[in-house]
Amino acid sequence: MQTHFTEEALKQPHIQEADRVLRSCVHCGFCNATCPTYQLLGDERDGPRGRIYLMKQMLENPDDSENVTEQTRLHLDRCLTCRNCETTCPSGVEYHKLLDIGRAEIERRVPRSTAERAQRYALRKALVEPKRFQALLKLGQTFKPLVSGKLKDKLPPKPVDAGTRPDHKRHARQMLILEGCVQPGLSPNTNAATARVLDRLGIGLTPVAEAGCCGAVDFHLNAQDDGRARARANIDAWWPHIEKEGEAGVEAIVQTASGCGAFVKEYRDILKDDPAYADKARRVSELAKDLVEVLRDEELASLEVNEGRRLAFHCPCTLQHAQKLGGAVEGVLVKLGFILTPVQDAHLCCGSAGTYSITQPELATQLRDNKLNALEAGNPETIVTANIGCQTHLNGAGRTPVRHWIEIVDEALPTPVNS
Ligand code: SF4
Ligand code: SF4
């Protein structure tokens, strides 16, 4: 695609980046075929090709206030950032990088109402601090009958008890785990189950209390500087464990929520212009692994799991489209003896998409119900997934229970003989 930026504009790094992405797009429209919002709304401006064109017009014309309006912002807001279009695109267009630039620009040029700003601010503040989130969650669960509307769907029942975590120090092999911000409150068993399964494989998970939210919530609600600040804080927390003087550092930084994993793998991109953090961010992104990347490389027979439970797997967009790990969890589960039921249109988003289910509730509910119909078609006993956002969103419908896949593996482990 031809672009028309001035030489002056091209001196700015974000315009250079936008120019690079725009030039890689050949405007073929193949991506529209797999875009969930285009499928639901049928409007070119609610598909990737139309959004690319809207962002091109906006960025090339910095003084155009007539065509850059709240309507433009709405079409960008409706994008799930699911990156299905990137998987489909034959030209390798890095759409999400353009979207980050476009969203920051529209936020500056078309400010939101006070109410919308307040909602986004409250979301960021409520979700990213684990202690605050857990206190709010407890309050919400206690007074659930009094809570109204969509928020009620977001309040899960009391979660499965986490059980104990084994002593990580008994293993020479060590990995770090990102505990996450909402997951410890919504599904505390996920990380505990991970610790138990990895323990059986001879891997200890070193806890790092100073690490917090990965930064994705802030970054995708257009508070990009706050998202970068969280990335820097996590790098500072992990660095002493990565660079251990005279000893081997940790093997990996494990994420059990694919949304967090996708974002930690992007630290190298979002901090590439920060001279103090660029090299460290690259190293952290290299070490970041989704849990399935750890398990698929291990000798799984040593787990002695042989299960026949029927499961339907929902592959989060952040796992299949962002991290390109589609099929990996299914491979591990089948190796362990689980039976996977067929799921149609597995490439489509469930509508969770970070805070999308709160900011765009109608579209999110349609996508959720379509996804559950597809997941339930093969009569699974349980639906499993790999991201707490999808898990909570799908569970909000109160249909077949949805859990993290590692919890099911943990439950299928044989009891140790000396326990
Ligand atoms: S498929 Fe790729 S090249 Fe074609 S319009 Fe979409 S983003 Fe552009
Ligand atoms: S990221 Fe998802 S919702 Fe957004 S344009 Fe691409 S396919 Fe459509």
Written account of the structure:
The structure is a single chain. The chain is α/β, with parallel strands linked by helices and 419 residues long. It folds into three domains: 9-109, Fumarate Reductase Iron-sulfur Protein, Chain B, domain 2 (Orthogonal Bundle); 168-295, Rossmann fold; 302-412, Rossmann fold (3-Layer(aba) Sandwich). The protein has 23 helices and eight strands. It has helices at 13-24, 36-41, 48-60, 70-77, 84-88, 95-109, 114-128, 130-142, 149-154, 183-186, 189-200, 216-220, 224-242, 258-264, 267-270, 278-287, 291-296, 317-322, 328-335, 356-359, 361-376, 388-395, 405-411; strands spanning 173-178, 203-206, 253-255, 288-290, 310-313, 339-340, 382-385, 402-404. The chain has a four-stranded parallel sheet. A four-stranded parallel sheet has the order 6-5-7-8, with helices on both faces. The mean pLDDT is 91. The protein binds iron/sulfur cluster (2 copies). The site of one iron/sulfur cluster (SF4) has 13 residues, from helix 2, helix 3 and helix 5.
Write the layout of secondary structure elements.
Blueprint: H1 13-24, H2 36-41, H3 48-60, H4 70-77, H5 84-88, H6 95-109, H7 114-128, H8 130-142, H9 149-154, E1 173-178, H10 183-186, H11 189-200, E2 203-206, H12 216-220, H13 224-242, E3 253-255, H14 258-264, H15 267-270, H16 278-287, E4 288-290, H17 291-296, E5 310-313, H18 317-322, H19 328-335, E6 339-340, H20 356-359, H21 361-376, E7 382-385, H22 388-395, E8 402-404, H23 405-411
Parallel strand pairs: 1-2, 1-3, 3-4, 5-6, 5-7, 7-8
Helix pairs in contact: 1-6, 3-6, 4-6, 7-8, 11-23
The protein binds iron/sulfur cluster (2 copies).
